[in-house]
Amino acid sequence: MKLQLMDCTLRDGANVVGKGFSAELTDMVLDGLTASRVPIIEFGNAGGIGAYEVAGFTDALTDEEYLNISKKYLNRSSMLGMFLNAKRYREKNVDLAAENGLSFLRVGADAGDGEIAVKAIGDIKKRKMKAFYSAMKAYILTPDELAEEGKKLEAAGLDEFTIMDSAGTMLSDEVAAYTEKLYRAVTIPVAFHGHNNLGMSAANAVAAWENGASILDCGLMGMARSAGNLATEMCVALMRRRGQMEDIDFYGMLDFIDQRLQPAMEQYKYHNPVPPLDLVLGYSGCHSSFVKQFKAAAAEKNVSLYRLISEVSEINKKNPKPELIAEIAESL
Fold first, then answer.
1. Domain count, the chain
2. Lower Cβ count inside 10 Å, N or C end of the chain?
3. pLDDT > 70: percent of the chain
4. How far, CA to CA in Å, does 74 sit from each of 33, 40, 68?
5. In this protein, which residues make up the domain named Pyruvate carboxyltransferase (predicted)?
C-alpha cells in the first residue's frame, strides 16, 4: 500500500500558539501544504471540532471560521478534515463538517475507550465522509489489546486507525510490535502519530512504516504539543530516501518553510529544530563544510540551493569540486 502523509500542523501544531492558529496563518499553511501536494491535512481547533464551544478552547477561531478559510482549498488534491474528541461529540458538528465539504473527521479517544467512538463513526459515515480514528495513549494497552480494539472499530465502519504515541514514550521495537499486530488484525489503513519527547519520532515513524503503517502523522517544523512531532519535511526526506513520497513537492515545501512559515513563527518564539538547509545536508549526504561554495554557485546561477546540493551529492559526496558544482548549477 502506498505510504501517505498526514499533516497535523494546523491541529496538533496549534498547541504552539494556544488552541488554534490565526486566520492569516491558517490560510498560509493550507496554501503551502496543498501547493506541496500533501495528501491529507488535519486543521482547526487543537481540541477538535466542537472544542471551542464544548470545552471552552476559545484561544482560537471558531469552527465556522476555520471551515470558511478552508473552502478555497477544497478543489486542490488534498483531503481536508478535522479532529473530533469522542468525549465532546455532538452530532451537529458532524453535520457542520459535512456541509462544509470536509473529506474526513478523525475521532479520538484513549486506547481502550473505543466504544464511545462508535456512534460518531456511524454518523460520520452516514454523511459520506471518511471516519478516521486516533487511539490516544496507545501504549496503555498491549499490542494484542489494541489490535482487538482495531477489529471492533473496523466492524463499526472505521476507515483508518491511528496509533498515537501521545507522550512520546514509545521505543522503536514497541512501535514495531503495536503496528504489526494491528496491521495483521485489520484490513483498513494503519497510521502512526509520534511525539519527540525521547527524540524517537523519526526512528519510530520508520519502524511503523516497516511494519505495516501506510499513513504517517507529522507537523511542519515539528510543531505539535509538548516536545513536538516528527517534522513533515523530515518525514518526506526520510521516506524519499526509501523510495516513498516522491509525489510530494519536497523542495517547494522547503521553500515555503524558509520564505513564509519560519519567519511567520518568529513572533511566537518558535524555534525550528532542523532548518531546511540542515535537513537537505542530511538528506543528500553533503558535509556542511561545502555549503559556502554551494551558496555561491546557487546565487551566481540563480538556482535552488537545495536542489543543487542534492544533485551534486548524488555524484560526489566526498569532495565535490567547484567545476562539478558549476556544471550542475548551469544545468539547473
1. 2
2. N
3. 100
4. 12, 12, 11
5. 3-254
Does residue 226 sit in the same domain as residue 322?
Answer: no
| pLDDT tens per residue, range 163-210 | 999 999 999 999 999 999 999 999 999 999 999 999 999 999 999 999
Q: Is 10 exposed, middle or buried (0-12, 13-18, 19+ CB in 10 A)?
A: buried
User: Which bin fits 257, alpha (ψ -120 to 50), beta or left (φ > 0)?
Assistant: alpha
**Do 177 and 312 fall within a single domain?**
no
Which SS3 state, helix, strand or coil, does residue 226 take?
Answer: coil
- My answer on whether 290 and 231 are in the same domain is no
Q: Which domain holds residue 219?
A: 4-268
The alpha helices in the chain, defined as continuous H runs, are: 23-35, 51-54, 63-70, 91-99, 118-126, 143-155, 172-185, 201-210, 232-241, 250-256, 262-264, 276-284, 291-301, 305-315, 322-331
> How many Å apart are CA 120 and CA 130, to the nearest integer?
11
Cβ distance 124 to 131 under 8 Å? yes
Measured distance CA(84)–CA(81) in Å, rounded: 10
**Average confidence (pLDDT) over 157-168:** 99
Torsion of Cα atoms, 204 then 207 then 213 then 216, to 10°: 30
Residue 299 corresponds to which cell in the numbers above? 546565487
How far CA 55 is from CA of 7, 88, 92, 158, 277, in Å, comes to: 24, 8, 15, 25, 40
Whether residues 41 and 142 fall in one domain: yes
- Output the domain CATH number for residue 210: 3.20.20.70
Instruction: Tell me the CA distances in angstroms from 257 to 20, 22, 29, 33, 254, one per residue in order.
Output: 19, 17, 9, 10, 5
Taking a C-beta distance cutoff of 8 angstroms, is the pair 43, 34 a contact? Answer: no
pLDDT higher than 80, residue 1: no
Are 205 and 86 contained in the same domain? yes
